[in-house]
Amino acid sequence: MQFNSSLTQLERLPLTTDLTPEPTPDDGGIDREALEAPVAKQSVGTLTAGEGTNGQRANSVSLQKSEELRQTMLAHRQERQILILQDFPDPDALSSAWAYQLIAQQYDIKCEIIYAGTLSHQENIALVKLTGLPAQRCPLQNLKSKDLSSYQGFVLIDNQGTTSQLVPVLEQAGIPLVAVIDHHSLQGNLKSEFVDIRPDVRATATIFTQYLQTGLLPLDSTINQHVKCATALMHGLRSDTNLLMQAKEEDFLAAAYLSRFYDVQLLNAILQANRSKRVMDVIERSLKNRIVQNNFSIAGVGYLRYDDRDAIPQAADFLVTEENVHTAVVYGIVHDEDDELEVVIGSLRTTKLTLDPDEFIKEAFGQDSSGRFFGGGRTSAGGFEIPMGFLSGGNENSAYAKMKWEVFDAQIKQKLLRLVNPRDNPIQSE
């Protein structure tokens, strides 16, 4: 496989590979002295990231944050934590949460990985099914009715709480925020014991791979769970760097390390998952409804079932490939009939190097009354979620549902086109 062979070449980049001591037979085979030793002294495959100043700085940050996380883990031994992913988690979030869970197990910390939404992207479904990745859906109402008294903390992985409807419930229950680990731009002030937010890194999976390299959890190719987690991390890193085309030096080094452990055939099986007919229908709708101005393609796709939410970013991925288009925005109203929940969800994809998705989305849609932005992004991609509040529901009346969509469609286009065509008034009065 060409992808794997290129990673094999990457392994020639400088890495230090100090051997870890053999685990003692006591305490379940876990070397307690190694766990309590500073990270730098028990590092395995610690990346040196080149000889330049940037590489040295990146390596220094990685070692520092790994040590801080180790200290945090030690302070929370034998506790129970909830790992919160964004409502619709991607491979980067899923794989990183799994890596956190495996690291935490070394410190007798039990973790549950949950998300409020659903897995609808075919690759995400395949990732969870084929690897046995231990993530579970937990709708908002389920968490509200759950006894949270047994949890001593919660952790945000690949998000900062702005894309999960579960966070307010945990905050209201008085569950403290133990850690935030993310690669997106800072979304606001975070009161967390441990914070590792690195927007310059292209994937949260890269950050977690660095944790593994510094010795928080030395991977072992003879342990099936380690191989599957490494495969998941490779998929997460690969997807968030656009097949490594937007990867930076740290991402390449992380991929080189993972190439020693991941299962090529398993990753290939995940990547070959087919699109569903419903996803193809949404892509078709985006093609019919798109408007193209100043190399921006903007498309509203109407109402979608909650389970089909991931069709929106896939449609944006498709539209941005059109000739003379450098940025695509696709959005729709996603509704969950069971929870009577409706929210406007959109995705942005761009190939324009000078366009910052995070700045663009924040400028277009602003903040809610509590100061939280409705969306944000990273290099080449972004997303937004706008609650519909009082206007949710009532769709059994087709005329009302149509009118509601037309209003939201017009409002979103107006906000986007003010940035695309700042001199024009996109909506003309009669």
Automatic annotation (TrEMBL):
Composition-biased stretches (Low complexity): 10-21
Limits of the DDH domain = 81-236
- What InterPro entries does the record point to? DDH_dom (IPR001667), DHH_sf (IPR038763), Oligoribo/pAp-PDE_c-di-AMP_PDE (IPR051319)
Domain of life where this protein originates:
Bacteria
Stretches for region Disordered: 1-31
What this protein is called in its record is DDH domain-containing protein
According to its UniProt entry, this protein's organism is Chlorogloeopsis fritschii PCC 6912
What does the record give as the organism's lineage? Bacteria, Bacillati, Cyanobacteriota, Cyanophyceae, Nostocales
